[in-house]
Design a protein that fits this description.
The complex is a heterodimer of chains A (329) and B (330).
Chain A (H helix, E strand, L loop, with lengths): L3 E12 L2 E13 L4 E5 L6 H8 L7 E10 L2 E2 L5 H7 L4 E4 L3 H4 L6 H13 L3 H14 L5 H4 L9 H13 L5 E5 L7 H18 L2 E6 L2 H7 L2 E6 L2 E7 H6 L4 H8 L49 E2 L5 E2 L8 H7 L1
Parallel strand pairs in A: 3-8, 3-9, 6-7, 7-8
Antiparallel strand pairs in A: 1-2, 1-4, 4-5, 9-10, 10-12, 11-12
Chain B lengths: L4 E16 L4 E17 L3 E5 L6 H8 L7 E6 L2 E2 L5 H7 L3 E4 L13 H11 L5 H14 L16 H13 L5 E5 L7 H18 L2 E6 L2 H7 L2 E6 L2 E7 H6 L4 H9 L5 H6 L30 H5 L5 E2 L5 E2 L2 H5 L4
Parallel strand pairs in B: 3-8, 3-9, 6-7, 7-8
Antiparallel strand pairs in B: 1-2, 1-4, 4-5, 9-10, 10-12, 11-12
Helix pairs in contact in B: 3-4, 3-5, 4-5, 5-6
Classes of the chains: A alpha/beta (329), B alpha/beta (330).
């Protein structure tokens, strides 16, 4: 049985200009120990998906419909206090900006210990020991001293490692990391990703890594879900997504990247047009207005095609060899 | 590209004073730029890469005279512009311009696109009335926008379109030289490529010279002809693009390149990672000797005592490293 199963999730936000649908009927599942990358650009709904799973959507946002089964239970049907027990204990989350997600007036140690006391019922002494142990695990130097530091005394990379320590302190089954390295420099990012990979192997927690950076996904995730305009447009193993993308958006994304493994003076192929405006979503495929392979029926709701070996794509033309067709034109 | 030097920066320094206590006693300096020298040739794109705190943005501001330098000289088109008057600085701005990182914060929300793009024309008295209007439309077309956008406000535009407005504004005075300060960092991947292509086309068409500041090594490799690597206010290595990316010499450049995640799962398993330990030290008290030595896998005694000088190792490939000098790294 899958550890997490999201079915038909629909999350909307009320705005002055009407209701926008940030996530529009998303379904996917995740097995225990799996590492899934959710990739998408701004407005694709990737962060709202993670907040929906954590049930952290607040007004004016609302989870309209859908089911989120975690370990057999529908999270959307849990009472608030039951959900509080799941959050932080069974499912933990790391946010992009470690400065605003840590409390500036509590020491790092107090913040980790609080989680442990709350969820595992440890006493003060034990909780502090756990905090030190966790800081050591994420390789904070002299953790028995740094445990009494405040967040501002940590560098950006250390803060993010402290966040990871806090998230993993209760041995969660699922870790959701929302752009965990976006605010970090590349050399620090490499350290943090390496650490996450290592801890994942050690603890066996499933990870959902949400990012806009395709390189980060390729380095850390076995499977990839590509989102566009509030829904999944392609799903597959990292191998499938990066080597044989079938959805024109995924292909376009990969072609528009300046990459170190391509000739330096190769001209980039951008995706024409602008990302969709959530207030004026196209009726069918959200990518249709920017797609060079658009058909008339793309303006109606497009179903997901199973391409075999777990590779899914939401595109009428995903079985055709579009890149060859595009090159021939 | 010619060998003509458009910009020549020598031993440029910028210290920001740090004060403490009730009397604002001067206690230390943040050495944001600490003795940097480089040249930009006419028609080329010099990429300036570095992590946060390396001083790359400050260098851009110093060159444009948006910030006064602590010491050092800046020569532009052969003329020393280090100590020019405010009035002369204004004329200089017709020759050199800047494109900012944040397309949301750098456009006045109360001005229409037309007003934003035509403002430089008015300030510098370049065009009036109908001519100004025509020139504004021409500028918008140049960056891929339309005349129908003239009377709209920045909030009606996406990030990529706003960045195009910023580019049109910079181009209004027909500059020779543009400092591009992280111009695509705030944009989505699919839009990044549009703006990068636009910058390249404009450079070719208008014969522009760019100083391209970025933390993103893939972007810099794509757009630059030469690249300078910065660390804590110092340049560690300068070389032609191919030399720098294919034969990086400085251990920091090597580590930086190895740290970039490549969107190719097959490459990951074979790739050997040089992981740097530790964090970037503070620019208030940079380490002695070579400021990279505490994190450097090749450091030896000399590195902590003596600061390495920039040396040409052939073909204009400059590097400041004792280990390279000793032949430890080839």
């Amino acid at each position: 049985m899958a550890l997490l199963e999201v079915r038909n999730l629909r999350t909307t936000f009320k705005t002055e200009d009407g209701v926008v649908t940030a996530v529009n009927g998303l379904s996917f599942s995740l097995d225990a120990g799996q590492t899934l990358g959710i990739v998408g650009e701004s407005g694709s709904g990737k962060s709202v998906t993670s907040l929906s799973i954590m049930r952290l959507i607040d007004r004016p946002g609302r989870i309209e419909s859908g089911e989120i089964f975690f370990d057999g239970r529908d999270l959307l049907k849990l009472r608030d206090e039951e959900m509080r027990h799941v959050r932080g204990h069974r499912i933990a989350m790391i946010f992009q900006d470690p400065m605003t997600s840590l409390n500036p007036v509590l020491t790092i140690g107090e913040q980790i210990a609080e989680v442990v006391r709350l969820h595992l019922g440890r006493n003060h002494r034990e909780a502090r020991d756990t905090a030190i142990e966790m800081l050591r695990k994420v390789r904070i130097p002299s953790p028995e001293k740094r445990v009494d530091d405040y967040p501002h005394q940590f560098s950006g990379g250390m803060r993010q490692r402290a966040m990871i320590a806090m998230a993993l302190s209760c041995n969660p089954q699922l870790l959701i990391a929302d752009e965990p390295t976006t605010a970090l420099d590349v050399t620090i990012q490499a350290q943090v990703l390496e650490l996450m990979n290592e801890l994942q192997r050690e603890t066996g927690a499933a990870i959902i890594l949400i990012t806009h950076d395709l390189g980060v996904v390729a380095e850390t995730c076995k499977d990839v879900l590509v989102m566009y305009g509030g829904n999944m447009v392609e799903y597959g193993s990292a191998q499938q997504i990066f080597a044989e993308p079938r959805m024109p958006y995924t292909q376009g994304l990969l072609a528009s990247l300046p990459r170190l493994d391509a000739p330096a003076n190769a001209r980039l192929t951008p995706i024409p047009g602008q990302p969709p405006n959530l207030h004026r979503m196209p009726p069918g495929c959200a990518f249709a207005p920017r797609c060079s392979y658009r058909l008339e029926r793309c303006d109606q709701i497009v179903p997901v095609t199973d391409l075999g070996h777990g590779h899914l794509a939401r595109c009428w033309r995903c079985t055709e060899n579009l890149q060859a067709a595009g090159a021939a034109r | 590209m010619s060998d003509e030097k458009l910009l020549e920066v020598t031993d440029l320094k910028k210290y920001f004073p740090v004060s403490a206590g009730v009397f604002g006693r001067h206690v230390a300096d943040v050495k944001a730029v600490d003795g940097v020298s480089f040249t930009v040739r006419k028609g080329e794109t010099l990429g300036l890469v570095g992590e946060s705190g390396s001083g790359k943005t400050t260098i851009g501001r110093l060159v444009l005279k948006l910030l006064p330098a602590t010491s050092g000289t800046i020569r532009f088109e052969g003329r020393d512009i280090s100590d020019i008057s405010a009035r002369q600085t204004r004329t200089l701005r017709r020759r050199m311009q800047i494109i900012f990182q944040d397309p949301y914060g750098s456009l006045n929300p109360r001005m229409t696109i037309g007003e934003i793009v035509s403002e430089p024309l008015a300030i510098h008295g370049i065009a009036k009335g109908k001519a100004r209007q025509e020139r504004t439309v021409e500028l918008l077309r140049m960056v891929g926008l339309q005349s129908s956008h003239l009377n709209r406000y920045p909030n009606e535009f996406s990030g990529g379109q706003r960045q195009r407005v910023g580019i049109a504004r910079a181009l209004a005075v027909e500059p020779q030289f543009i400092v591009c300060d992280e111009p695509v960092s705030a944009l989505d991947v699919s839009i990044q490529a549009q703006v990068l292509n636009l910058l390249e086309d404009l450079r070719e068409r208008l014969g522009l010279t760019y100083l391209f500041i970025s933390h993103d090594l893939s972007v810099v490799r794509h757009i630059s002809t030469r690249v300078a690597v910065l660390y804590l206010g110092k340049i560690f290595e300068v070389a032609d693009r191919s030399a720098l990316y294919e034969h990086p010499l400085h251990p920091y450049t090597q580590a930086l390149l190895a740290a970039i995640p490549v969107p190719n799962p097959e490459m990951q398993s074979t790739q050997k990672r040089v992981l740097l330990s530790g964090d970037v030290p503070t620019a208030m008290a940079p380490p002695s000797g070579c400021r990279f030595h505490p994190r450097c896998p090749f450091a030896f005694e000399r590195c902590s005592v003596e600061e390495p000088a920039m040396r040409d190792v052939g073909g204009g490939h400059m590097v400041a490293c004792h280990a390279v000098e000793n032949g430890t790294i080839q």
